[in-house]
Design brief:
Blueprint (H helix, E strand, L loop, with lengths): L7 E4 L5 H11 L5 E5 H7 L2 H8 L3 E8 L3 H13 L4 E5 L4 H11 L4 E5 L7 H6 L4 H5 L1 H15 L3 E3 L5 H8 L4 E4 L19 H7 L3 E3 L2 H4 L4 H15 L1
Parallel strand pairs: 1-2, 1-8, 2-3, 3-4, 4-5, 5-6, 6-7, 7-8
The structure holds cytidine-5'-monophosphate (C5P).
């Protein structure tokens, strides 16, 4: 059975193998998965992946692929060989590319779509030539891209905890939602994340996984912080 800690994905937002290894050793058994992004993967390559696996945790390889379909297909094949649980691809403009990502995964890795980066503003959308309808309401763009991802056979998407309900209602409970921007109630408003929800709210809304970085990393006792979050999830799930 799935336990509360399995909801938690800890992002290894560090740039050295040593630092990453320390977090993996500290938090293995207290979180379900580790997220490896571009910064760390460029520094360490697959070595960090092997290390995480040896410590018994799953891996979310967040490389956000975006290229011509043939390249994405081959890159995703390589990722599938790494034996990670999830990998990301941008669902910006081409359903064919998304289909290639799914084909490349060969069912061996869950492909997750990135709809609209949280760093992108209405102004950015406008400057890059989008229709006014998406400039005034970016959630329409999120939904349009999520639809494209779903139609291409992608396993799920990365989205805010506030969007989970809408995504599940439109695309079904099997469509996986991974949500960053999680803050325990007492940590609200302390950093740059704007559209935040608590771990309990996110799970209540139907989130399958929560990416939680700073509330764990910056705590005096990261293990205790992860445990406390698990307890909160347990009371909901
Ligand atoms: O420290 P914090 O909990 O804000 O970390 C959230 C993690 O999720 C970071 O690795 C960040 O890059 C990532 N992320 C995000 N918002 C997205 C997608 C990914 O914060 N829309």
């Amino acid at each position: 059975m799935r336990s509360a800690k399995d909801y938690i994905i800890f992002p290894l937002d560090v740039s050295s193998l040593n630092e990453a290894k320390q977090y993996v050793q500290l938090l293995s058994g207290h979180v379900g998965m580790f997220k490896v992004g571009l910064e760390l993967f460029i520094r360490t390559g697959p070595e960090i992946i092997t290390f995480i696996k040896d410590n018994g945790a799953d891996i979310f390889l967040d490389l956000k692929l975006h290229d011509i379909p043939a390249t994405v297909l081959r890159a995703m094949r390589g990722i599938a060989d790494l034996n990670v649980k999830f990998a990301t691809v941008h669902c910006g403009e081409s359903e064919t590319m998304l289909r290639s990502a799914v084909e490349g995964s060969g069912g061996r890795v869950g492909v997750l779509g990135v709809t609209v980066l949280t760093s992108v503003s209405g102004d950015d959308i406008k400057h890059s030539g989008f229709n006014e309808v998406y400039v005034s309401d970016m959630s329409r763009l999120v939904m349009k891209r999520a639809r494209m991802a779903k139609d291409a056979g992608v396993a799920g998407i990365v989205c805010s905890g506030l969007e989970v309900k809408m995504i599940k209602e439109n695309f079904g409970s099997e469509f996986i939602t991974v949500t960053p921007g999680i803050r325990p109630a007492e940590g609200m408003g302390k950093d740059d994340q704007q559209r935040v929800v608590t771990p309990g709210q996110a799970v209540k809304n139907g989130a399958d996984y929560l990416v939680i970085g700073r509330p764990i990393r910056d705590a005096k006792d990261p293990k205790a912080a992860a445990r406390k979050i698990s307890e909160e999830i347990e009371n909901i799930a």
